[in-house]
Amino acid sequence: MNNEDRIHQALDTFQIETPSWGYADTGTRFGKFTQDGAAITIEDKLADAGQVHAFTGCCPQVAVHVLWDFNAEASPEDVRRMACDHGVRIGSINPNLFQDQCYKLGSLTHPDADVRKQALAHCVDSVQLGQTLASGVITLWLADGTNYPGQDNMRTRKKRLEEALSEIHQSLSTDQVLLVEYKPFEPAFYHTDIADWGMAWSHARRAGEQAKVLVDTGHHYAAQNIEQIVAWLLDEEMLGGFHFNDRRYADDDLTLGSIDPYQIFRIFREIFAYVHDTGVVPKIEFMIDQSHNLKPKIEAMMQTVMTAQELHAKAALVDHDALGGCQERGEIVDAERLLKQAYDTDVRPMIADWRSARNLPEDPLMAFRESGYQEVAASERKKRREALGMNQTSSYA
Length: 397
Ligand code: AFD
Ligand code: MN
Ligand code: MN
Known about the structure:
The structure is a single chain. The chain is of the alpha/beta class. It has one domain: Divalent-metal-dependent TIM barrel enzymes (TIM Barrel). Helices cover about 50% and strands about 10% of the residues. The chain has helices at about 5-15, 40-55, 65-70, 75-85, 115-130, 155-170, 195-205, 225-235, 260-280, 295-315, 320-330, 330-345, 350-355, 365-370, 375-390; strands at about 20, 25-30, 30, 60-65, 90-95, 135-140, 145, 175-180, 190, 210-215, 240-245, 285-290. The protein is globular, with a radius of gyration of 21 Å. The N and C termini lie far apart (about 55 Å). One manganese (II) ion binds near residues 219 and 251.
């Protein structure tokens, strides 16, 4: 198979989910810079996600955040219809266990049984919401942890979480998966209850067959070898999915591949190698987790999507048989050359051909910019913000 065919075949099956929260105003703990064009309601978010899908052709699903996207004006049925109206559908469901005041000392791991009960009820409600929306994926991120040595017993918290995850798992329908996300620190600063892939793996394993690990590429210490984690989880059949972004320092939600594109290529290459070696195509949820504070939201999302397609296409070019031969013979220079040859291939013309063959613009970002959608949305939403008296200036949170 030539490079063009390999890339077209890879792109035909490559889909990546965009997050509703990536279209709305966001900020840091030091303040929020609002944008006239940012989405205000879930309908705005789904309209914007619909634009990303319409121009790129690979983002039919939108992740939702339960507390931020559903309310009196947006029931699950309303949201499902809005998604359909904008040419997308609801993807993963994100419970919110980190904003309610009662979660100050944790949610599912909290020392107070009543708080744990409230958190568990929210998770089970989220699972049922997923069933209502025909979403097969529950992505669980816990901000749980402690800020001071001695604050709580880490083993007791582990046990509380094991109990809760097992109950959440029991509420899943047969076609749902529970993806357990890990993060080394933030917001907790002394310890985080699910701090690394091993803890997530242990919790998912204990919870049940339908629980797997969610790898957020921004949730690793600087020198961590993420593709080794991916290879292990693949081999253990415990890789549930990714939250893609990039980081300079920590959980920065930078544009995927903007700091270390070769790492993302190596991650995708591990998946292609696993499929080649085992003949098994694992069900992996490719999801974006970003919410840019400064960039225009839709353009930032398109940049990430287009980069993901390029890095995935490059990884599709690796000749696994030739690489396997080099590895067996210990030809380490040639082995690395094979990877670099694939990575250094300019795949953009072949991706452009793939897009035009599907009536998609060769450069989705520029085509979107010329469409005028952003200007129309910004002026309409600016009026709505003013009418709602929404905060226009950043303030210390
Ligand atoms: C934050 C958390 C985590 C979570 C996301 C959506 O660090 O990545 O998946 O918010 O809730 O980025
Ligand atoms: Mn994440
Ligand atoms: Mn994060």
